């Protein structure tokens, strides 16, 4: 067998490969053995007719179509390997020359991984991320802890205010008719949560416990119930109970109640440390991303469509898994989830294209730099993974051996990515941001509380 590249246009390669007459004869025999059991010949039991008898009756070419398929299945991968092509899609293969007694010539057109023309990737200049922990950041997180530890107390000496928690009965009418789902007893409602129809909650502000209120609303045009879209409705509402948050005093006693610290100042200092650690992590991630984004954007590269489509499908599956992990299981959710996933995939193309381009660029730099991973480094990573999974001692060795056999290539690739990013960031030139740059908010309050719980 011989093979050669005829031409290459962008990422599409046209190649030629041959199959000898001996190899084709072997393929014809394989085709005969594959289909002989389905052929009836008079004078022979089904499947027992010799090949030459079948060919005499139906012609020598009876097995050629199947034989060509068999020959291609063996010869094409060998040609790809010989030409060292990194293919990314199924080929289009045609028979170019097929004459009795001569080698068969095939032509294939296939898309391959693009060659990446790398830009300057060492010493790239990027704006460094800076996040300063301010006093107001600390106060905001302290306020969140205070809110979390608030008590809900009954209110009897004032009317309803925004932020109150009510217990109500209600009956809803469109015209003179009650409508389905419009009646409830002892329903909880937080005023200002916007969990009811627009305008409903606002009309309860200023009312008192025991009062009966007529609430007039219009259902939104995009309301989920078709029969109620855009309709005027009246709710008869009775207020049974008014409750409000009672915030604890921010003092040393509060610090003792919610943390391991004896004073409010110690608690504030700990919040600051947690924020600073979070800010440090965010700065590192942001700087890494900025360096990679700069290099990727500087790379002139046509990303193959087939890789973009695969990445969109991958992102779509991850998006669907998020729904499933939240408990949306079963056929009753399938149509809803499919609609959400399809909408997401329609908008995911820019992200998918960037993801693929990033992978191609990083792979090219890894190859250019000769970044390799030693057996010892892989072993250390396996140890870390096993530790993170908290595998029981009697299963530990089996778990690590399983990782080494099934996930070694993935672990090696992950470590290569990590190394190349570290190298690129170490060699980057970080410059100060303009003075007008807005500061970044640091962290959600619940993450602060998790940090405190970890230390406790």
Kindly list the characteristics that best describe this protein.
5-stranded antiparallel β-sheet, alpha+beta, disordered C terminus, 456 residues, extended, Chitinase A, domain 3, 13 helices, Alpha-Beta Plaits, 4-stranded antiparallel β-sheet, Trigger factor, domain 2
Roughly what fraction of the amino acids lie in strands?
15-25%
Mean pLDDT: 91
User: How many strand elements?
Assistant: 11
Low-confidence segments, given as residue ranges, are 443-456
> How many distinct helices?
13
Please outline the major beta sheet. Answer: 5 strands, antiparallel
The helix/strand series, from N terminus to C terminus, equals: EEHHHEEEHEEEEEHHHHHHHHEH
Shape: extended
Oligomerization state of this entry? single chain
Structural class: alpha+beta
Describe the structure.
- With 456 residues, the chain is an alpha+beta fold.
- It is built from 13 helices and eleven strands.
- It has three domains: 109 residues, Trigger factor ribosome-binding domain (Alpha-Beta Plaits, 2-Layer Sandwich), CATH 3.30.70.1050; 96 residues, Roll (Chitinase A, domain 3); 201 residues, Trigger factor, domain 2 (Orthogonal Bundle).
- A hairpin with a 6-residue loop joins strand 3 and strand 4.
- The longest helix is centred in the middle third of the chain and has 35 residues.
- The protein starts with a strand and ends with a helix.
């Amino acid at each position: 067998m011989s093979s050669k590249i005829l031409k290459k246009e962008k990422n599409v390669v046209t190649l030629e490969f041959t199959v000898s007459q001996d190899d084709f004869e072997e393929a014809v025999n394989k085709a005969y053995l594959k289909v002989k059991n389905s052929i009836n010949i008079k004078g022979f039991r089904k499947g027992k007719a010799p090949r030459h008898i079948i060919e005499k009756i139906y012609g020598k070419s009876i097995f050629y179509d199947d034989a060509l398929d068999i020959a291609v299945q063996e010869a094409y991968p060998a040609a790809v390997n010989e030409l060292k092509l990194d293919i990314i899609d199924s080929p289009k293969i045609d028979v170019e020359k097929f004459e009795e007694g001569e080698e068969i010539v095939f032509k294939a057109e296939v898309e391959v991984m693009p060659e990446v023309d790398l830009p300057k990737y060492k010493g790239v200049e990027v704006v460094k991320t800076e996040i300063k922990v301010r006093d107001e950041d600390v106060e905001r997180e302290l306020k969140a802890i205070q809110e979390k530890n608030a008590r809900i107390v009954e209110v009897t000496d004032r009317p309803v205010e925004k932020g109150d928690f009510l217990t109500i009965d209600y009956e809803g009418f469109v015209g003179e008719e009650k409508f389905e789902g419009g009646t409830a007893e002892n329903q909880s409602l937080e005023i200002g949560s916007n969990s009811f129809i627009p305008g409903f909650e606002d009309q309860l502000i200023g009312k008192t416990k025991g009062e009966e209120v007529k609430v007039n609303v219009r259902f939104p045009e995009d309301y989920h119930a078709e029969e109620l879209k855009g309709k005027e409705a009246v709710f008869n509402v009775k207020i049974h109970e008014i409750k409000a948050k009672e915030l604890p005093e921010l003092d040393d006693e509060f610090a003792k109640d919610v943390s391991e610290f004896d004073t409010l100042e110690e608690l504030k200092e700990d919040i600051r440390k947690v924020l600073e650690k979070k800010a440090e992590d965010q700065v590192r991630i942001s700087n890494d991303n900025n360096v990679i984004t700069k290099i990727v954007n500087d790379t002139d590269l046509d990303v193959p469509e087939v890789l973009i489509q695969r990445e969109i499908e991958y992102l779509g599956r991850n998006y669907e898994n998020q729904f499933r992990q939240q408990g949306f299981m079963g056929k009753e959710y399938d149509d809803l989830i499919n609609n959400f996933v399809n909408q997401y995939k329609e908008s995911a193309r820019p992200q998918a294209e960037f993801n693929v381009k990033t992978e191609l660029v990083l792979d090219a730099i890894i190859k250019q730099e000769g970044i390799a991973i030693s057996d010892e480094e892989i072993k250390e990573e396996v140890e870390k993974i096993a530790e993170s999974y908290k595998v029981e001692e009697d299963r530990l060795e089996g778990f690590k051996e399983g990782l080494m056999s099934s996930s070694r290539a993935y672990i090696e690739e992950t470590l290569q990515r990590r190394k190349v990013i570290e190298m690129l960031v170490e060699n980057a030139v970080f410059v100060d941001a303009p003075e007008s740059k807005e500061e970044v908010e640091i962290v959600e309050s619940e993450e602060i509380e998790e940090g405190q719980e970890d230390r406790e």
